[in-house]
Amino acid sequence: MRDDPRLPTSPGFWRSPLRGPWFTSVLGVVLLVGITVLFVTGLVSYAAYNPDLSPVNDKTPDKGILGFYLFAWPTHPHWLYRLNQGVHVTLGITLVPVLLAKLWSVVPKLFALPPARSLAHALERISLVLLVGGGLFEFVTGVLNIQLDYVFPGSFYPLHFYGAWVFIAAFVAHAVLKTPRALRNLRHLREGREGEEDGLVSPRPAEPTVSRRGALWFVGGGALLLFLTTVGQCFDSLRRTALLAPHGGADPGSGPNGFQINKTAAYAGIDPAEIGPDAWRLVVTGRTGTVRLARAQLAALPLHSSALPIACVEGWSTSDQWWRGVRLRDLAALVGYDGDPPDLFVESLQRRGAFRHAALSAGQVADPRSLLALYVNGEELSPDHGHPARVIVPAAPGVLNTKWVARMTFGDL
């Protein structure tokens, strides 16, 4: 039955003449570089949330040793998170055709019999199953999260985080086993020689309809198309080209507040009556007690301006917007922290969605560009951009720039 060409367990079932060491090796080397960059930028993005700072920032509380690398997220340069997440998401989308082509090229190995010829072969097969399953899981959950159509059960953050570690463990094991052969095959390709036999060449190949170089050009063209229709979400001037990005296309409005929005006031469940001038008060708590401030009182305090972008975990970002408001460190001084300010816990009026609360580190509070913003681009914040007041911090993920701020607590978290 194993050699019955009608069954996928037979090498003769897989007849495409494209499969072979060269095609697989080229795709493998591209993925080796690309997935390494994806993994590193993903870890950096996770660190930007500063999950060790406070439980409200930590969506993976059982991470244990997997959080060994976490570090205090900096505020310089102010575009750091924008760059990191733009690379992570755009590269991930761009690699989809390469990943699919790679999986297609090695699919005969998933059906090969016997399942294990030796212990080493069994470990290789297990790593291959984890590699394929983990790769598909990470790319599918990532794409669903980017497109704001996440349908997997459970929170995206722990699923994607733990899935990434499972996938990268299998990826490293596979890379250690296969990279030397892939590099030898590429060297043979340059020299015009045949690559090493890897069990992927069909014993009864069909007539070719396209060359291997043509197939690689096809895969590369698909990757380039995805790149061109995604990367624009990171640049205002190219946003109309981001056809596959949820925040692509035209700006959502005009005027000073007419730039990209993630959560609208309606989506977040903001009651217009709560943010009116007669109802809204900012509650600031610290070493010396509690201060309550109306918006007019905040506006009467010394105001400062900062040019900062909004950058989202989903990969989209805005150009620098001009924010004006009260420095976070000045608000800390109002409640007894005249020197170095402490950490800050921020609470929002938001009723729906994640990150209704957020924690900021002392370093983020101390940065002179970190504001409780009242204005943007010379105009009062619109309700969708956080009126009556929102946090804006350099290099922080967008969800940590809390909108519709109601309470700020300075001190140990």
Automatic annotation (TrEMBL):
Q: Which residues form the Oxidoreductase molybdopterin-binding domain?
A: 274-410
* Single annotated GO MF: oxidoreductase activity
> Is Iron given among the entry's keywords?
no
User: Can you tell me which residues the record assigns to a coiled coil?
Assistant: none
Q: Which residues cross the membrane?
A: 21-49, 87-107, 128-147, 159-177, 214-232
Q: Name one Pfam family in it.
A: Oxidored_molyb
| Keyword Transmembrane included in the entry's annotation | yes
Protein origin, superkingdom: Bacteria
InterPro entries, per the entry = Mopterin_OxRdtase_euk, OxRdtase_Mopterin-bd_dom, OxRdtase_Mopterin-bd_sf
What is the protein's name according to its record? Membrane protein
From which source organism is this entry? Streptomyces phaeofaciens
Instruction: Recite the lineage of the species.
Output: Bacteria, Bacillati, Actinomycetota, Actinomycetes, Kitasatosporales
